[in-house]
């Protein structure tokens, strides 16, 4: 689906009336769309969970930040993002609920923490609903979730669409016979494993993780599934880090995300 | 209490879907104390049995004012969130060391050989909240005890621990210090 909205502003916002909090959240993001969170690792106690819904996130809802020229629109045809009008508010709340932790796991990295999303029952439910709405009539029989945060989002989706859930795990966790796929990290390699017999040739699968960065882990999962004859219909993540170009690394495999992190 | 006594017809279907894998894992982990690893991944391959598993927990906990479902990494992450979503509770992951990015509190617990540690984010749970702890299986109860300790230290009340499988011979139930335990299936 082509994304063809301009930057969202109050004058061309959709006809739904946002709640005051959502409108305020959207307006704050427009004023500083690329602002990073001010939470600093050296003063974690200042961050109050009780007030998380006022928290300023560096994550921008897709609908609010994508702007296009006509030429760009044509290149967008393979991009898939959650963008329907009625989803604006759900996406905004989801984006607001994600916490950014600077310098984790190492200096210079802005870690996208979805655990705060899981504390917001509405936002967590909306996250799952957005995926379920997209996939429920697509004859998907397998949801593969990547350890460990893919285990949080994959099973609720699988249950809602009537698919089986297949965990894709780090080495030596799965007890039965496995097939494994090596993939590269910034330094060195890691391995991903899947149980033999979990999936059958001809099945249609989704691959789920909380976030796509370089795309290395998702590519390993795709390879594992394709090696046994499964068709990977799409990869689905809550968050994309577009600067790391994971989408390109997936090649012709479609990717659907809810939120871009600047 | 398990669901065995007034056995719900769904239990049988769940039990038959759990695969037992001999001689796994390597020495040092709790489940291999015996030899027979209870593999729930085969349960997850049966959409009806997986749904029944979740439904049995949801039916038990819905409307009981539970605001937190804490799931133990990693297989607790598979069962916890669907329960949390269905009962309108938040989901709190309890993780191995150095996985959670924010400020954490931790609890050390002993393994057959050595120690491990469970962590929870500061601020995830507020005092007075009612919590469930969810994992796929209870063996010796060490991990569940550590989980309850974390929740109680921040002032939450642990209403019950819920697992798909219990290994009664390892006496984990007794280790929970009187905290109720609900399981669907026992394996001897």
Describe the fold and architecture.
The complex is a heterodimer of chains A (262) and B (188). Chain A has 262 residues and is an alpha/beta fold. Chain A has one domain: Rossmann fold, CATH 3.40.50.2020. Chain A is built from nine helices and eleven strands. Chain A has helices spanning 20-31, 62-65, 70-75, 88-97, 115-118, 121-135, 150-161, 216-227, 246-249, and strands spanning 59-61, 80-81, 99-102, 110-113, 142-146, 164-168, 178-184, 189-195, 204-212, 231-240, 255-261. In chain A, helix 9 links the parallel strand 10 (231-240) and strand 11. The longest helix of chain A is centred in the middle third of the chain and has 15 residues, at 121-135. The radius of gyration of chain A is 19 Å and the shape is globular. Chain B is an alpha/beta fold and 188 residues long. Chain B has a single domain (9-186), classed as 3-Layer(aba) Sandwich (Rossmann fold), CATH 3.40.50.2020. Helix content of chain B is 30%, strand content 30%. Chain B contains six helices and nine strands. Chain B has helices at 9-17, 41-44, 47-61, 76-87, 142-153, 172-175; strands at 19-22, 36-39, 68-72, 90-94, 104-110, 115-121, 130-138, 157-166, 181-186. In chain B, strands 4-3-7-8-9 form a five-stranded parallel beta sheet, with helices on both faces. In chain B, helix 1 (9-17) packs across helix 3 (47-61) and helix 3 packs across helix 4 (76-87). The longest helix of chain B has 15 residues, at 47-61. The two termini of chain B are 16 Å apart. Chain B: It is found in: Cytoplasm. Chain B: One of its GO terms (molecular function) is adenine phosphoribosyltransferase activity.
């Amino acid at each position: 689906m082509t994304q063809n909205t301009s930057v969202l502003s109050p004058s061309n916002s959709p006809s739904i009336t946002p709640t005051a909090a959502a409108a305020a959240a959207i307006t704050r993001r427009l004023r500083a769309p690329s602002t990073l969170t001010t939470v600093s690792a050296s003063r974690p106690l200042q961050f109050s969970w009780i007030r998380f819904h006022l928290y300023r996130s560096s994550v921008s809802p897709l609908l609010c930040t994508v702007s296009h020229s006509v030429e760009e629109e044509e290149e967008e045809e393979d991009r898939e993002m959650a963008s329907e009008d009625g989803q604006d508010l759900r996406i905004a709340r989801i984006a607001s609920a994600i916490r950014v932790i600077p310098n984790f796991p190492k200096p210079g990295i802005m870690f996208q923490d979805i655990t705060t999303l899981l504390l917001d029952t509405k936002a967590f439910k909306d996250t799952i609903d957005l995926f379920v709405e997209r996939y429920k009539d697509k004859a998907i029989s397998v949801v593969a979730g990547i350890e460990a945060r893919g285990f949080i989002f994959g099973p609720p989706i699988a249950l809602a669409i009537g698919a089986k859930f297949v965990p894709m795990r780090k080495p030596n966790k799965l007890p039965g016979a496995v097939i494994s796929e090596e993939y590269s990290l910034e330094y060195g390699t890691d391995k991903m494993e899947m149980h033999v017999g979990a999936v059958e040739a001809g099945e249609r699968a989704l691959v789920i993780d909380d976030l796509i960065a370089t795309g290395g882990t998702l590519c390993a999962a795709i390879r594992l599934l394709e090696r046994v004859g499964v068709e990977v219909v799409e990869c689905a993540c809550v968050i994309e880090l577009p600067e790391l170009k994971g989408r390109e690394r997936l090649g012709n495999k479609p990717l659907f995300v809810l939120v871009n992190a600047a | 209490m398990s669901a065995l006594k007034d056995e719900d017809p769904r239990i049988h279907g769940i039990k038959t879907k759990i695969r037992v894998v001999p001689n796994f894992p390597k020495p040092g982990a709790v489940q291999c104390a015996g030899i027979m690893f209870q593999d729930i991944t085969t349960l997850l391959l049966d959409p009806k049995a997986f749904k029944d598993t979740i439904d049995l927990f949801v039916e038990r906990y819905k409307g009981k004012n539970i605001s937190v479902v804490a799931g133990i990494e990693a297989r607790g992450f598979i069962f916890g969130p669907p329960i949390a979503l269905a009962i309108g509770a938040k989901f709190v992951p309890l993780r191995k060391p150095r996985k959670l990015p924010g400020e954490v509190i931790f609890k050390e617990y002993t393994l057959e050989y050595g120690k491990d540690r469970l962590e929870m984010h500061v601020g995830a749970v507020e005092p007075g909240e009612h919590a469930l702890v969810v994992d796929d299986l209870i063996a010796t109860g060490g991990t569940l005890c550590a989980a309850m300790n974390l929740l109680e230290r921040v002032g939450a009340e642990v209403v019950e621990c819920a697992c798909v499988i219990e290994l009664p011979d390892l006496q984990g139930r007794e280790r929970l210090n009187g905290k109720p335990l609900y399981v669907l299936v026992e394996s001897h």
